[in-house]
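# step 3/5: fold
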Amino acid sequence: MTLDLAKNEKAAELLEELVRSHPGHPKLLRLQSLALNRLGRVDDVVTIQRRLRGQFPKDPVPARLTRAWMARGNRTAALKVARDRVRMTPTDAEAQRELSRILLAAGQAEEAWWEIRRAVDLASTDVKTYLIKTWAAIKTSRWEAAREALAQARETGGPTEEIQRIERTLRTPDQDRKPRRWRRSLKTKKTWISTRTSL
């Protein structure tokens, strides 16, 4: 029996048969998880990965498990898995980057900033890492660091559309908008005073 993971539906069916015949076989379970992940069957992926984690707690955590939890909208579970992954593979830059990405999505920008700095130390030429570092810097109002990280992303061949989106954000950061809001408020106050005086 041959297995072509590119044919996702057929692969999932074949793997389901094989797993029934060989329950608990780790390689088959991992392949089944991969096939189901490609089909977008997130709940099934989570179930299989939980089973594997129970059988092999010391094995590295696959990135698709954190993404599966995120797809289900469970950021708490995704963060727990991502932290476990970093703890088990502390020199894996991709694991650090994934944790930073989830932290940003969860609104924990300050922690994401420190985690992504570790990822940069591990993979200083990775464009995805620089892009996440840029967003983490923006979210924590580290504007100079954001511009520096963006320049590094550009040098390493970052996607043009993403870079342009970040550039638009950096042109009008929060600290540049505040004075304008203050001036509008002052102008309104002056108008109110002028109106009161003329009565």
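# step 4/5: annotate
Residues 174-198 form the longest helix (25 residues).
# step 5/5: archive (pending)
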